[in-house]
Specification:
mainly alpha, elongated
Length: about 210
């Protein structure tokens, strides 16, 4: 965060490539923590089986009912003693088992996709960030205008990048950025003033 007066002309801020590299490393660290936390527990598996889950399409109760029905049909065929209907009972039992396996597979596949959707999108973002940090050369015209109006969707922040002030979305800010907080604007994160000891540190939203 900048002081209200003095020292502005001497500030350079982070280079765009360095800032993107830091953002890439931060996202990679979060993804590594997610992999470590979710790799052992398989939360999507238990979500399918719980009968109180709002996302479950097939909980353990219909699974048990289908399994019991298949067991009764197959057991009835085994005690049929050669009656003509035994083949029909076996076919019905196998059909119920096949439907059980199919429905369970679809429910597990849907739950796994739902749990990994944001993770895979974040992986795609890290790929783009890494490539941009290596080959992209951002110009001042690539950023929104400094006098752009406030938007409820994307919050913009005056930030020093490559020695100039640009309007940067909060999502692209990283630790070590030098920002200019305008009057009435909330802080994008933990901000420490530069050169002015009387100015207090600000937390996110202050």
């Amino acid at each position: 965060m900048l002081p209200p007066q003095g020292g502005i002309g001497e500030l350079y801020g982070l280079k765009t490539a360095e800032a993107l590299r830091r953002l890439y490393l931060e996202v990679e660290e979060v993804l590594a923590e997610y992999r470590e936390a979710s790799g052992r527990k398989w939360p999507w598996l238990w979500e399918v089986l719980r009968h109180r889950s709002q996302h479950s399409r097939l909980c353990w109760i219909p699974l048990a009912a289908l399994l019991g029905s298949a067991g009764v049909l197959l057991a009835g065929a085994s005690f049929d003693n050669g009656i003509d209907g035994s083949c029909c009972l076996v076919g019905q039992g196998l059909l119920v088992l096949g439907l059980l396996v199919f429905n369970l597979s679809v429910a597990l596949w849907d739950a796994r996709l739902r749990h990994q959707e944001m993770y895979k999108k974040a992986l795609d973002v890290t790929t783009v960030l890494k490539r941009c940090a290596e080959i992209c050369h951002w110009k001042e015209t690539n950023y929104p205008h400094l006098c752009s109006p406030y938007s409820p969707c994307i919050t913009l922040q005056w930030t020093y990048r490559d020695g100039r002030v640009v309007n940067l979305p909060w999502a692209l800010l990283v630790a070590g950025d030098t920002v200019m907080i305008r009057p009435g604007q909330p802080a994008p994160g933990h901000c420490t003033p530069l050169g002015d000891k009387e100015c207090p540190e600000l937390r996110r939203g202050e």
